[in-house]
Amino acid sequence: MPARTSRLLRLTVASAVALGVGTSTALAAPADVGAPGIGDPYYKNYGNGGYDVGHYGINVAYDPSSDLLTGTTTITATATQDLRRFNLDFVLKASAVTVNGAPARFAASSHELTVTPATPVISGGAMTIVVTYAGVPSKVSDNGIRPWVKTADGAVAVGEPEIAAWWYPSNDHPRDKATFDVRATVPKGVEALSNGLVKRITYGKTTDTWVWKSAKPQATYLTFLAVGQFDVTQGTSASGLPWINAVASNGGQEGTYAKADLARTPEVIDWHTRAWGKYPFEATGGVAPAADFGFALENQTRPVYTRGFWRNGPNIYVVVHEQGHQWYGDGVSVHNWKDIWLNEGFATFTTWYWSETHGEGTGQQILQEVYATPATDAFWSTVIGDPGAGNEFNGAVYDRGAATLQALRNRIGDPAFFQVMRTWAAKHRYGNAQIADFIALAERVSGQDLGRFFHHWLYTGTKPAATAENGLDGVSPTAARVAAPKSLDKIRAVQKVEVSARH
User: Key word NAD present in the record (predicted)?
Assistant: First the structure.
């Protein structure tokens, strides 16, 4: 899908300064050379300039015994400028590259595969890039990062923002979404799970090949592969949505709880649909591998969960959180990684609202508990509208992020608030947006000037004052409720696992 450049927003000068509104462009490069980065201020070499990807055809073979992955990925793209050279994000070893059928020269450096086509590609021209490669992903480190998860019987390609480069070459940034086909050949009897719908499974003498298709625009980091021994179940929800779940066959008691909660995924999806609008994708489900990698990730159509979420029993809240991301994070993706509040704060708020509609504590009660955190606590020092590279998954982005939405709900009222949330999900579906876009929408729908409100909640490292302007009229600055919401420990347990794993 073509990369998007956010439209200019009409904000007051004061709001623009307070909110840090600006534009970002790809790293400077000669006019006929694609930039090595897409222009994200946090990760200068993530994504690439000069082309837009429409489709990825990923064809890999994986051997669990050696962790060797071999592959050929075909990328269909369109040049957005004249290109005599361009980059792909990739860390494995490439052995051959072709562009439009002709062998191309290529050179590898940290996180980058630089490709020089035999014939330059003109702006607007079609590009078919084929990369052949091999490597042991678990042994590859880039700036100390090793996102590939090896399990006892396979592996899981799962991570945020890094994972794609460890198993396929790409324009690795949420701004350049595409459709995907994933073909994975594995030893006979081993399952290979990915996004979307399984198109076919070919059973051979010594290997099996699983073919998956994602038909809707999808960010690169949300594309996953899980290989191992799984118990796979599937069906169709009452609303007609296909679902596929997979839980590690040796999951033990944790696996039993995981199966029960994942079986409720259609129920969770239907609840989200009533709250936020149409489900954006063609399938749903979940995967719980035999591994403790410490977090869940909202992979499009099929989140992947660490087994530790079920160590202490059932945990429907983690399913609600990850499925909430299908609207907020997957359907609508960040423009830059500093916009992460639009993902994690929103998904956390969906768990607050689930709690409210299931009699375990209202959003207002949970807000009171969060707001009771002392002003001197480091919790309030994180500027969640711009948390900084490597700090995107700070606990405050989750809790203070959800508190911002509940406070907005208080400030503008339920009718306007839910109209904002549903319009956001529909207006930017399959695309990207940034925080300034959300602020503009909230102001337009509510008819209110919300510049100071969002400045206090998103762009200061201090606790917002308990005022009506901040959506906190009647909320005590210090006193927690006599009885904490039943859901609070469950919601915080989800965040505690994720935050500790990512730092």
Answer: no
